[in-house]
Design brief:
Blueprint: H1 3-22, H2 30-42, H3 51-66, E1 72-77, E2 83-87, H4 96-113
Antiparallel strand pairs: 1-2
Helix pairs in contact: 1-4, 2-3, 2-4
Length: 118
C-alpha cells in the first residue's frame, strides 16, 4: 500500500471516529481537528473558550503536531497551564495542498501514538 493511500485511509478513519464523537452528523474539517488537538494538549476539555483562546489552542496544536518534525520544541507551561513552544526551524514555503498533507500526516501520527487509530 502506498504511503499516500495509507494516509488517506487513516485520515478518513480518524475523521469518522472524531466526527461521531464530537459532531452533530457532519464530518469535522482539518481546522476542527486541529482545535480538538489543542484542547487535548491543554487538558481543559470541559471549558468554554473565547475566540482568542480558540486561536491559541490551534497554535498549541500546530506546534505540538509539528514538534516531531523538528519545527517546534516544547519550552514550558505557564502559570495558567498553557504550553509554550519555541521555533526550532522555520517551516519551508509550502503550497496550500502541501500544508494540508503535512498537517493531516502529523495529525494521523498524533492519533496513532495515542492508539485512537491503527
Amino acid at each position: 500500500m502506498s504511503r499516500d493511500t495509507q494516509l488517506k485511509e487513516r485520515w478518513e478513519q480518524l475523521v469518522t471516529i472524531l466526527s461521531d464523537q464530537f459532531s452533530q452528523g457532519e464530518d469535522l474539517d482539518l481546522d476542527a481537528i486541529i482545535y480538538l488537538v489543542g484542547v487535548q494538549e491543554l487538558g481543559k476539555v470541559h471549558k468554554e473558550f473565547k475566540k482568542d483562546e480558540k486561536l491559541n489552542l490551534m497554535h498549541i496544536a500546530i506546534c505540538r503536531l509539528l514538534e516531531p518534525y523538528g519545527f517546534y520544541e516544547f519550552e514550558f507551561f505557564d502559570e495558567e497551564g498553557w504550553p509554550h513552544y519555541k521555533v526550532k526551524e522555520e517551516l519551508p514555503p509550502l503550497k496550500a495542498g502541501e500544508q494540508s498533507v503535512l498537517m493531516k500526516e502529523a495529525i494521523v501520527n498524533y492519533f496513532l501514538e495515542r492508539e485512537v487509530i491503527s
